[in-house]
Amino acid sequence: MLRAFQSLVLCCLVSSPVWGQTLVVKAKQIHTVSGKTITNGAVVCVDGKIASIGEIASVAIPEGAKVIQAEVVTPGLIDVRSSVGLSGILNVDHDSDHLESSVPLQPELRAIDAYNPREELIEYVRGFGVTTVHTGHAPGELISGQTMIAKTRGGTVQDALIIDGKAVCATLAESSKKSGKQSPGTRGKQMAMLRALLIEASEYRVKLSKPSKESELKDEDSKVARNLKLEAMVDVLEGKKALLITADRAQDIASALRLGEEFGIRVWLDSAAEAYQLIPQIKKAGVPVLLHPSMARASGDRENMTFRSASMLKENGIPFAIESGFEAYVPKVRIVLFEAALATAHGLSKEAALESITLSAAKILGIHDRVGSIDVGKDADLALYDGDPLEYTTHCIGVVIDGVSYPGESR
Amino acid sequence: MITWNRRKWIGAAASVPCIAANLLSRKHTLGFESENAEPIAWIHAKILTAAGSLINDGTIVIHKGSILAVGTSDATAIPPGAKIIDAAGKWIMPGLVCTHSHIGGVGAADASAPIQPGVRILDSINVKESGFKRALAGGLTTLNIMPGSGHLISGQTVYCKLRYAGKGPSTIEDILIRDNEGKAIGGLKMANGTNSQGEAPFPGTRGKSAFLVREQYIKAREYHAKRLAANGDPEKQPPRDLHLESLVEAMQGTRIVHHHTHRHDDIITVLRLSQEFGFRVVLHHVSEGWKVAKEIAAAKAPCSVIVIDSPGGKLEARDMTFKNGRILDEAGVRVAFHTDDWITDSRVFNRSAALAVRAGMNRDRAIEALTIAGAEMLGLESRIGSLVPGKDADFCILSGDPLSVYTRVLETWVEGQKAFDLANPDDALYAEGGQGAGFELNPYLCCFGQSWQQSGAK
Fold first, then answer.
1. Is the CB of residue B214 less than 8 Å from the CB of residue B270?
2. B-contacting residues in A 198-237 (Cβ below 8 Å)
3. B309 and A346 in contact by Cβ < 8 A?
């Protein structure tokens, strides 16, 4: 009986949304991102969804609802590319599952099998407004594995998960080259290996879709053997998964676009420090950019990066979102709020900065029907502040995920 | 202004005075003499002097590389013939002082031994490295350029002025800060904790680390005693030992020890060693300083704090917090910030102070932590770090409040010369980034006794 009670309590603590519960967030400014900013407004969250929004006078506040007050409210922030949950705070083997380096091509590695929802850095980024993360295997191998989309809560990966296997991560960079006689040792070999894998997957796909006469006879032995590696790549060929390609140098970005065109696959450019040098090509290819953090280090493949990348992508109408990316050392995780904020000092409007870590990210990830803006019917995911969200000295005072409130940054 | 305890060297009979202000004569710097003989005055600016409260309508006058006058616009006389610039809407503050930077593609001590105090960083600096331009774009004017943390003692640091006006420096000699004997001034870099551990001959534990350091300082003490006993007699003089000489300078207080340390117990170990050998120490990074703030305050050891966007990256930095600066300051510890460039980018050095204010640090103290407090930690406070008459004309002009994300550094002046101008496209490249603006060389920092994987890709 006691155990049953404990499970019930635990269930209430970790699961969300809390059905039947109503939460109201009032604020002097509500940035809906999808529409106009509301002054002196309220957001009413019922059963984990946004039930109504508007000026306080025009919104019916349900009786008995819990009310939270903030200066400013934005949609819960979305980190479009991270390794949080796989790459832990201590940066030791014990908590590092973001990169497996035994072989260069491992599209079969699933993020859900590596994601630790209790990793403390998840709570840390949530404190700065992040409610949704697209996280997974890090750059550093030619294909390092898959990604997933999660809410920044939950005690198990199932509690947190929105979408499993969103993208397969490839890297075209110095970091994915191997030393000695191992392959890939050159950029040419990197592309040759990726093309060979995609061709193999195409052939596998044909085999799967056109069963031989023998297999039509339902002879189990003659069916095409399952191949997890190629299955993942078939998903890429069929557009079910994007091929997220980390590429910073213009020549690597060009290679990524060439690969996308050859196989007709959905490519997402990741990091893309020199994207500003290939604006027409990226625009023509119609691929989005998961842009490196503004404060990424201007060294190695990113030596020519600029703080102005976000504003240049915006001006040219290229869909982009600012990511936290992956850090091998410090800061072990970056905060997208900080990275977007800095872009405003370098030509990006405040509105565009906010959009780049909310609705733009949601659209790239294909989850904008659920998250990314404050609209009726969407998940009740909000970030609350005591001032201008982008300013250095403002605080994130709380977040709401599926109608459940969590603390903001520790102060 | 807090001035901190100058320890006397207790390891030798003779007590040698520390670097004093009057030794820092300008005549020995190889900086650029002002081309304009006339004074320049900026009027109607908001001025943060780092020596008092904000002046809302302020005037600053400079002449021949020095500050001539600072004050409210209505009470500050402008000398006849001065060039007058209306700076309404702009902010002016002292040039930022970074007490811990690795700019210049540096590499001092190598992997051969964990203790190499004789190795000089000044022999490894590429003055043409673009990092100097990026630092100016962040409003920095003085740097303590340091070797990495991969050794217990990784060599001598050097204090540099960013004299990049005009054609900029040709050699390292052009940016050194010298004493009145013409000698370059710098500190000594030490480290403890995990970065400086590794396979032999590097220490494997904290106990061994402290032992190896003590052993060397004791040798240096004996070496110095022999030198004194020789009393100038060449026959009795021990052979010169560059490593030991450097440690003797540390014990005499003429070479400040800049000590990398993160964990609370490592911090206490540094204080213990400093006590035993009498070296003047600045604690650097001090991720867990907030846990032993009282002890640090009691030891009168100043802290140069790093601000990183998230804790972790290694066990020692797990409990890092934006509150560190506030807690140390409130405990009475003198606090500065540093970039550790390339760990954080010099162009956003002001952000370190802003995030500390986010966590509750007093605003004026946060500004001091970017300027005068750093100058004190380099022993250069009589010459730089605040806007007061007689000091070097090192300052930056900003578009707004230095603690705001929307503010840009518009100009940086070093010794009366404009060394950075955002309006100049050549300079703006380094401020914004772009083709050719990044690092040509990454610094050679860490961790020499460890495999790359062990070091967590430091």
1. no
2. none
3. no
Chain A CB within 8 Å of residue B418 CB: no
Q: What is the DSSP string of B38-59?
A: S-EEEEEEEE--SSSSPEEEEE
CB of A300 within 8 Å of a chain B CB? The answer is yes
Q: How far apart are CA A348 and CA A350, in angstroms?
A: 7
Whose tokens are 């900086």? That residue is B31
Determine whether the interchain pair B432/A346 forms a contact, defined as Cβ–Cβ distance below 8 Å: yes
Per residue in B18-43, pLDDT (tens digit) is 333 333 444 334 444 445 579 999 99
B321 in contact with A, Cβ within 8 Å:
yes
Fold of the domain built from segment(s) A77-371: TIM Barrel (3.20.20)
Contact list in A for residue B437 (CB cut-off 8 A) is 298, 303-304, 306
What is the average per-residue pLDDT within A35-58? 97
From residue B353, how far is each of A142, B170, B357 by CA, in Å? Answer: 39, 33, 6
Report the alpha-carbon angle A291-A162-A94, nearest 5.
75
User: Of A118, A100, A117, whose CA–CA distance to A109 is shortest?
Assistant: A100
Domain boundaries, chain A: 14-75+373-411, 77-371
Q: Write the ipTM.
A: 0.93
Question: The tokens of A24 are what?
Answer: 């109201």
* Residue numbers in A near B435 (CB within 8 A): 277, 304
Q: Which amino acid is at A223?
A: K
The fold of A14-75+373-411 is Urease, subunit C; domain 1 (2.30.40)
Task: Tell me the domains of chain B and their CATH numbers.
Answer: 21-432 (3.20.20.140)
| DSSP character string of A325-380 | B--SSSSSS--HHHHHHHHGGGT--HHHHHHTTTHHHHHHHT-TTTSSS--TTSB-
Whether the CB of B457 is below 8 Å from some CB of chain A: the reply is: yes
Alpha carbons within 13 A on the beta-carbon side of A394: 22
Residue A327 has pLDDT above 60, yes or no: yes
In tens, the pLDDT along A154-192 reads 999 999 999 999 999 999 999 999 999 999 999 999 999
Q: Is A385 on the interface with B (CB under 8 A)?
A: no
Nearest CA in chain B to A332: B313
- What six digits make up the tokens of B252? 């005499």
Strands A130-136 and A143-151: antiparallel
